[in-house]
Amino acid sequence: MIEVHQATKVYRRGRTEVRALAGVSLTVPRGQFLSVMGPSGSGKSTLLNLLGALDVPSGGSIRIDGQELARMDDAALSTFRRERLGFVFQFFNLMPTLTAVENVMLPGLLAGRPREALHSKAESLLETVGLRGRSQHRPDELSGGEMQRVAVARALLTEPALLLADEPTGNLDSRTGAEVLRLLREATRERQLTVVMVTHDPRAAEVGDRILRLADGAIIGDEPTRGVPGVVPD
């Protein structure tokens, strides 16, 4: 599903070079939930941005769902992100003027899909994430946990091959965060969805199948989780 080979990323700040990734190689099979951990500056966000086709590597290769990202132009990358990837962010990134169901529909609308079919699917997804009866509420009428559930539903709308989550529980209390993690875990199991989640929280990381540890742009650890797959720690 994901094949990364000797990926590097170098940023220039004036005359200084900052090596954010230093030859990272990894493989993530379809249907696996990978948690990525590391201190600030370790390369976690850089790796996530490269996997999300939001940035390009300085060297090496990244192949997702059989496609080499470096061989795609901007238009192809945009289409790939819209149709094959789902994103869940720490700060939800919902449109404040849209209702919950409209926020979920948004990726499909941008892709030009029929509105009526999208509305039905979005309502179904909101029910799946436990928001039945909340579809007409705008973000300022929802709790943090409810907003993140909307974000999860939105990420699933296009039936992506890969879902990328950046600190999805960072703004939530522990109980609400566990509920969101359970939704991601269930999506992995029921939809054969591959998930890559960046987190600082070791308890959240244990929800995954495997933990990748980064430091100074390099992999320093890669091990299966100790918990039972599919069980969110109390």
Short description:
With 234 residues, the protein is of the alpha/beta class. It contains 7 helices and 10 strands. It has one domain (2-224): Rossmann fold (3-Layer(aba) Sandwich), CATH 3.40.50.300.
Walkthrough of the structure:
- The chain has 234 residues and is of the alpha/beta class.
- The protein has one domain: 3-Layer(aba) Sandwich (Rossmann fold), CATH 3.40.50.300.
- The chain contains seven helices and ten strands.
- It has helices spanning 44-51, 74-84, 100-110, 115-128, 144-156, 174-191, 202-205, and strands at residues 2-13, 16-28, 33-37, 59-64, 67-68, 85-89, 162-166, 194-198, 210-215, 218-224.
- The strands form two sheets. The chain has a six-stranded mixed β-sheet. It has a four-stranded antiparallel β-sheet with strand order 2-1-4-5, with helices on one face.
- It is globular and about 50 Å long.
- The two termini are 31 Å apart.
